[in-house]
Amino acid sequence: MLTIQNLTLTHKKDLVNLIEDLSFAIKPGERLALIGEEGNGKSSLLRAILGDESIHAYLEVHGRIVNTFRTGYLPQELPEGDRGLSAYAYFCGHERFYDQTPAQLGSLAARLRLSADVFYSEQRMDTFSGGERVKLQLARLLMDEPELLLLDEPSNDLDGETVRFLSDFLCSCGLAVLFVSHDEALLEQAATGVVLIERLRRRQVPRVSVCRQGYGEFVQARADLFAHQAQVARKEREEHDKKMRRYEQIRARVEHEQNAVSRQDPGTARLLKKKMHTVLSMGRRFEREAQEMTAMPESEEAIFARLTCPPLPPTKVVLDLHLDRLCIEDRTLAQDIHICVRAVDKVCITGRNGVGKSTLLRVIRDQLKKREDLRVFYMPQDPGDLLDMDRTPLELLERTGDKEEQVRNTVALGSMKFTGEEMNHPCRGLSGGQKAKLMFLMMAASGANVLLLDEPTRNLSPLSGPVVRTLFASYPGCIIAVSHDERFMKAVCTREAQLTEHGLTLNEI
Q1: Are 100 and 143 within 8 A, CB to CB?
Q2: For residue 126, what are the contacts with CB-CB under 8 A and spacing of at least 6?
Q3: What's the domain count of the chain?
Q4: What is the pLDDT of residue 202?
Q5: What is the pLDDT, as a whole number, of residue 45?
Q6: What pLDDT sits at residue 271?
Q7: Distance (Å) of CA 282 to CA 241, 275, 287, 443
Q8: Residues 41, 9 contacting (CB under 8 angstroms)
Q9: Could you give the dihedral angle defined by the CA atoms of residues 65, 68, 73 and 76, in that order, rounded to the nearest 10 degrees?
Q10: Measured distance CA(113)–CA(239) in Å, rounded
Q11: Do 285 and 400 fall into the same domain?
Q12: Are residues 247 and 214 in the same domain?
C-alpha cells in the first residue's frame, strides 16, 4: 500500500510550495490520476514517491511517504543516456531481461502489441516513434512484475488505438496505478479517482483536492460545486450590498442631523451621538459578516497568447509534395506519398505509431523552409529540438533586447502562468507543459502563416486542452499537424491525412 501523509514539496531556489500538506492512500486495483496545470509539481510528486534522490537538488521534501509496493516508474521522456542505445542494448541494461524466456518475451510483446523480435533489434531508441518508445519503456518496467505503476504522461504520442489498449491494460492489470495524464479520453476511461494539484493567487498558494470519482464525474461535480458556490456567493454579496447602501443612507442622515443640531439643544445632540454610535456598530457588524461570506470559487485557468499572422490568398498552394519513399535510416516507412495543401487548410496527419508521421512532418519542414513567400514555424515533438535548455524563457523570447520587449515578454509569460522565478530558471528545470507553453509564445511572436505542429497538445493538462483547441481553431493561417488527439482533430482540423505504408489518404472532417 502507498500512504502519503502531510507531504509538502518546496522549491529551494524561491521557497515556493508546489504542494502543501497532501495526504492520501492508494490500494491495489485503484487508479488515481494526477492532473493540474503545467509546473505544479505532478512529475516531482511521482519522483518523490519513487524515492528519487536527484529531486533534493531543487526540492525540499517534508512529510511521510510509506510505500510497501514493488514499484515501476515510467518517466515523461526517455532518459538521455538511453536515447543512443539500440533496443537490444536498452533491454540488456536491465538485469531482469536475462530471466525472461522466449515465451515470456513473446507474451509481453503481444500484450503491448510490439513485434516479438523488437527486444533484439539494433535500431536506435531515438529513431523509434514516440509511441514505440513508450511501449518499449513499459515493456522493460513490466519485467520487474511491479505492484504499483507510477506513470508520467504514459499516453504521450500514442495513437488512438494504442491509447485504448493502454486504458484496457490499466483497467485489467489489477495493479495500483498513479498516473499523470493530459489525455482526456484516457482519464475518462481509466481513472477511478482524481488528485487535482493547483497553484492559486498568482501561483503562490497551493491547493490539492483528492476525489474518489471517475474523471467525468469529477469534472461534472466540480463544475456543479463551483456554480452553486458562485450562486451562493453572489446572492450573499447582493444582500450585503443592499445592507451597506441602507447603512450609508442612515449614517449620512444622522451625520447631517448632527451637523444641523443647534448648540443650544444639547439633549438632542446627545441622542444623535448615541444614535451614531449604534449606526457605526451596525457598520462594523456588516464588515464582520462580509469577512464570513462564502468565498467566490477559485480555480486555476490556462491562458494562452493569441495567434495572428499576415493573410495568405485562400487558394495559394502551400504544399504540393510527392515522395516515392519515406525512409528512416535504411528502413522504408511508407511509399507513394502525395499531399497538396492550400492556405485555408488545417490538416491533421494521423496513423499508427511508427508509420512515420513525425518523419513526414520533418520532410515537409525542410521543403517549406526554402520558401521565401511563406513564414513557417515548426513546433517539434521534443522541446529540446527547439529550445536551448541552458537559457531562460526570457532569454529565448528576446529579439531586440530593449526594455519594451522585456516588459511584453514578461507579461506574455505571466499570461501563461509563469512566475517571476520560473521566467528566469533555465529551461531544463521547467515541466514538459511549461516548455510547450514557451514554444506557443515563440510561435505567437513569429507571426508565421504556416504552422507545422508535432503533437501540439502533448504535455498540456486537461485544463489547457480546450483553450489550445480554441486557439488553433481561430488561427487564420494554414496548419499541418501530427496528432493522436481526436478532440484536437475534430475541433481544429478540416482534413485528415491518414498515413499508412502504402501512402496518404485524405478525408474531409
Answers
A1: yes
A2: 78, 83, 84
A3: 3
A4: 64
A5: 93
A6: 87
A7: 14, 11, 9, 56
A8: yes
A9: -20
A10: 62
A11: no
A12: no
Q: What cell does 128 get? A: 523509434
Pair (107, 248) in one structural domain: no
Q: Which residue has the cell 450585503?
A: 240
pLDDT, tens digit, 9 for 90 and up, residues 470-500: 889 999 999 999 998 888 999 999 999 999 9
- 186-196 pLDDT, tens digit each: 899 999 999 98
Q: Residue 327: pLDDT band by 50, 70, 90 thresholds?
A: confident
Q: Phi then psi for 199, rounded to 5 degrees?
A: -135, 110
Give the whole-angstrom CA distance, residue 93 versus residue 84. Answer: 13
Give the model's pLDDT for residue 375: 94
Single-letter amino acid code for the residue at 430: L
Which of 114, 131, 146, 59 minimizes the C-alpha distance to 381?
131
**Considering the entire predicted model, what is its pTM?**
0.66
Q: Identify whether 169 is part of a domain.
A: yes
Beta-carbon count within 10 A of 352 CB: 20
Name the grid cell of 223: 463544475
**Does 165 share its domain with 280?**
no
CATH number of the domain within which 51 lies: 3.40.50.300
Name the β-bridge partners of 10. 17, 60
Categorize the per-residue pLDDT at 3 as very low, low, confident or very high, splitting at 50, 70 and 90.
very high
The C-alpha cell 505509431 sits at 353
- Single out the residue of 41, 84, 52, 95 nearest to residue 300, CA to CA: 41
CB 165 within 8 A of CB 173: no
Instruction: Check: CB of residue 341 under 8 Å from CB of residue 329.
Output: no
Cell numbers of 257, please? 442631523
**Cβ neighbour number for residue 309 with a 10 Å cutoff:** 18
